[in-house]
Amino acid sequence: MSETTTLDTQAADWWQTEIIDMRPGEIRYHGYPIEQLIGRVGFAEMVWLMTRGELPSNAQAALLEATLVGAVDHGPQAPSIAIARMAMTCGGSLNNAMASAINVLDDIHGGAGEQAIELYRAIEGRLQEGGTLPQVVAQGLEAWRAEHGKIVPGFGHRFHPVDPRAPRLLALVDDAAERGEVSGTYAGIAREIERQLQAKKGKPIPLNIDGATAVIHAELGFPAPLARGLFCLSRSVGILAHAWEQQCQGGRNKGPMPKGWLWDYRGQVSRNVSNG
Questions:
Q1: Which SUPFAM superfamilies match (predicted)?
Q2: DSSP secondary structure string, 125-180?
Q3: Is the dihedral of CA 71, 183, 188, 174 positive or negative?
Q4: Going by fewer Cβ within 10 Å, which terminus of the chain is more open, N or C?
Q5: Is residue 75 assigned to a domain?
């Protein structure tokens, strides 16, 4: 073996992937030539192919697309959207604004879907061991709170008494379950969690967009960590739209509060530096 061949092999082995095969004049994703995918496969189907390795069925693609549409935007009151708009008023570019915004989609703002899947799957595992759904959900919630605290991810909303996106997404799951396209197990778990939260709190703590998309992602078999990535993918559309709108509107150095509004200062009273 020549020294050149050895170096070529070392270079080829530096990165290993099953996602893309590419050489001059050829591009294949998981074996599919790109020219056969273009014009035949939708974006949601491409997301599935790239993350799961196979093309989805029409039913699977439709449910995934529903989650991507549902989580696109929630206005400038959402930190990610506000950050994108503020970045544009600081003279940033669209890509800088998008990166700044996506970087804050973390455990609290953006991570609830991943956490909800973890909760649902823990409860589903308990179901397989036996027990009624109400019993198992109660045990699952108790175990979750013991490990993670009182917040149950995917339920309740600080702005919407009822998140208008959640019932629609669950209805799509119900329809798919009736057709035998998904099991409906996770929709049942989510509804029982919702029922028990209301019974405990004495008021509705309804399913929100994170909990509803988590139902679909779980029904479709997505690993929990991918749920956060899918949320980022969806919300990036709204982030782009708001960043572009802000660029078109103009404005300079817009912070989180309107001009003339000041924060609540709670430090030391006015004082002077002593000469001693």
A1: Citrate synthase
A2: HHHHTS--HHHHHHHHHHHHHHHH-S--TTB--SS-SS-THHHHHHHHHHHHHHTT
A3: positive
A4: C
A5: no
Reference 224, options 141, 139, 154, 133; nearest CA is 154
Token readout for 122 is 């823990």
The rounded mean pLDDT for the chain is: 93
How, if at all, do strands 32-33 and 20-23 pair?
unpaired
Confidence bin at 9 (pLDDT 50/70/90): confident
Under 8 Å CB-to-CB from 170, ≥6 apart: which residues?
187, 190, 191, 207, 212, 215
Average pLDDT estimate for 246-252: 95
Number of domains in the chain: 2
Backbone CA torsion sign across 99, 100, 101, 107: positive
Residue 86 covered by a domain: no
Half-sphere exposure of residue 258: CA atoms within 13 angstroms, side-chain side: 0
Q: Which domain holds residue 193?
A: 112-223
Q: Record the pTM.
A: 0.91
Asked if residue 175 has pLDDT above 70, the reply is yes
109 near 77, Cβ under 8 Å? no
* Backbone angles phi and psi of 161, in degrees to 5: -60, -40
Same domain membership, residue 217 and residue 116: yes
- CATH number for position 166: 1.10.230.10
Quick one: tokens of 26?
């050829």
Q: What are phi and psi of 206, to 5 degrees?
A: -75, 160
26: confidence class by pLDDT, cuts 50, 70, 90: very high
